[in-house]
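ESCALATION

Customer reports they have been waiting on this structure for their group meeting. Please prioritize. Original submission:
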Amino acid sequence: MPRSLDDKQRILLRVRRIKGQVEALERGLEAGLDCGALLQQIAAVRGASHGLMSEIMEIHIRDELGQDGLSEAEKAERVNGVASLVRAYLK
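Update from on-call: job pushed to the front of the queue and completed.
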């Protein structure tokens, strides 16, 4: 979860942009747009979603691995958690 106000506002802006893109896709489907236009809109949604995931993942990595005073066991556990998230994302 983004902790800083700037991060949170930036993430919310991305989410709202994605929401607008999905709503435009829905309107296009209802209006009977051709497949090419629909595919282009889907690609835009996918790109925006990947950007959101990337930004939140970066924030998470910094939060998890950027803290001072962690024991070696805590560091290893956090690295394993982040690695698991990256693997799931790349599937």
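Sent to customer with the following note: The chain has one domain: 5-90.
Escalation resolved.
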